[in-house]
Amino acid sequence: MNDWKNQTWFGRDVAAGTYLNTELEITESYSGRNITIPIRVIRGAEPGATLFVTGALHGDELNGTGAIRSLISDPQWGPARGNLIMIPVLNVLGFERHSRYLPDRRDLNRCFPGHAGGSMATRMARVIFDSIVSRCDYGIDLHTAAVRRTNYPNARADFNEPECLRLATAFGAGVILDNRGPKGSFRREATTAGCPTIVVEGGEVWKVEPSVLECMSRGIVNVLKELDMLDGDPEVPENQVKLRTTKWVRAERGGFMEMHVSPGSTVVAGQPLATNSSLIQEDHNRLEAPFDGIVIGMTTLPAVQPGEPVIHLGRLSSSKTVRRVRRQSQADDIQRTTQEHLSTNIQVTPPGESRS
Ligand SMILES: [Zn+2]
């Protein structure tokens, strides 16, 4: 039965106004056991939209897992209207090995919408698509930076899709980025299939960082409000930054990097970003901002070779915008705290005099 009062999710009946902890069979292990994804389905008492929220599609990216677990730790919590499908770990096989990838080294986030007769990864993608995406109206997919990098929390969406832009805006990260995602990625293929989906990036792999968790939790609640699944208006920072262009500033020389900026820092063109030198402090080489911008990601590994990415910079339109964005992020408690916390993971020094 699939009227509002009684629906079947993953083979189980779930009445309106109740929740279900269940599992979706996704594949079988080498020893022939079922591999399943744990899922909580929370049903509002009244009809409304159906939203999925996924963490750890890359199995080592755990901030989203932390945010989802924190919200569902209260069994009373959930939408007043609509259905919420909470999936703390989508890529259970990667998660079991603390790895981004599947055991066959494929990236599950390049295998959507999948294929029932294909590789292990594409078969899993197909099950996820058929069982979850096909029944949802919207989606939020939570990620972190890749290994040895960190990200200032930002939502990524295809700005040409009004519903994606709407979700990204409502999520309430200080920075949103126009990016539809690579071919085969979950958000791009889900959006193409009629389920507008955004990605949120924040922090590092292998951790639950409290300030990133706060940002992601607020964002999920904000989207529920935007979709009228919860009462109230989303808390969105004033002067949210919309980025259309980003660039990785890369190391010119090998050596040890000292950073002059941290995630969320705003910079003007020509401002020093980082200085690298030999281990005995010779051959200094300074990297400068190629344009006015905001640091949305950076390496956490200070040792670099020429060409390696150091600072991921989003382009802002002018130095006036830089000042406005700086004021905006300082005025929002969650963003200010996140910026402070993320900067303590990296040695940040003043640039001093140019020594190159
Ligand atoms: Zn990821």
Automatic annotation (TrEMBL):
Record Pfam families: AstE_AspA_cat
Domain (Succinylglutamate desuccinylase/Aspartoacylase catalytic) ranges: 47-226
Lineage: Bacteria, Pseudomonadati, Planctomycetota, Planctomycetia, Pirellulales
Signal peptide (residue range): none
Keywords: Hydrolase, Metal-binding, Zinc
Protein name per its UniProtKB record: Succinylglutamate desuccinylase / Aspartoacylase family protein
Superkingdom of the source species: Bacteria
Named cofactor requirement(s): Zn(2+)
